[in-house]
Amino acid sequence: MSAILDGFRRLADFSGRDRRGRFWPYALVAVVLVYVGLMLAMIPAMASMFGEAARFAAENPDQATVIAAPGQYSVQIHDPAGMEMPDFGAFFWVMRLTVVVAAVLLAAAVTRRLHDTGRAGWWGLPSLVFVAIATTLFPWVMERVMQSDEAAIGPFLLLFANNMLYIISLIGLIVLLALKGTPGSNRYGAEPG
User: Fold this and answer.
1) Three-state SS at 109
2) Is residue 74 part of a domain?
3) What is the pLDDT of residues 133-172, one digit of tens each?
4) I need a surface site. Which of 4, 76, 92, 103 has the fewest CB within 10 A?
């Protein structure tokens, strides 16, 4: 518990070193909090979209199929062109805000953990850059895909490549964070106790 509380106290402390045993409990709690927050923030946006689909199906029964059973509710719109697409703006802003919150919660802890392995904190930056690109491009690409714009294939493939690079960089970062720390002192300070 002290490692978790210490992680929250040291949100702006990018100096020094942290051992694996202090980093991972905090990092896991921070990631779980971010995902729980994301899910809670998505509920109103998703409820609005589902409500709009149900309203459209009720007003246009010939253009939709509704399946309602215990524990199941499905609306299939046969001609989506007849339905006004919901505004995904709030959804995408929640995604962006989630990335910012995750970066704030994890940046200093990741930096200190990398310092313990003898690496600069900048090793954690590529994953953040790739996820920032994705959250910026995703709304633009999805808007074109939803409009059946044939020119969307190029940006879609670029976004796909970016996401693959994100996954590769994230796996690389996790491997670096899991490495054993440098014994004794290194350029970032004394070995943590």
Assistant:
1) helix
2) no
3) 999 888 888 878 777 778 888 889 999 999 999 999 999 9
4) 76
Q: What is the pTM of this model?
A: 0.79
Question: Is the sign of the CA dihedral 55, 58, 63, 66 positive or negative?
Answer: positive
- The larger pLDDT score, comparing residue 41 to residue 87, is at 41
Within a domain: 113: yes
Tokens of 179: 């490495």
Counting the structural domains of the chain, the total is 1
The residue count of the chain comes to 193
Rounded Cα distance, 149 and 43, in Å: 29
Phi, psi of 188 (to 5 degrees): -105, 0
User: Is there a domain that residue 98 lies in?
Assistant: yes
DSSP string, 7-59: HHHTTT--SS---HHHHHHHHHHHHHHHHHHHHHHHHHHHHHHHHHHHHHHHH
pLDDT tens digit sequence for 86-117: 677 777 888 888 899 999 999 999 999 999 99
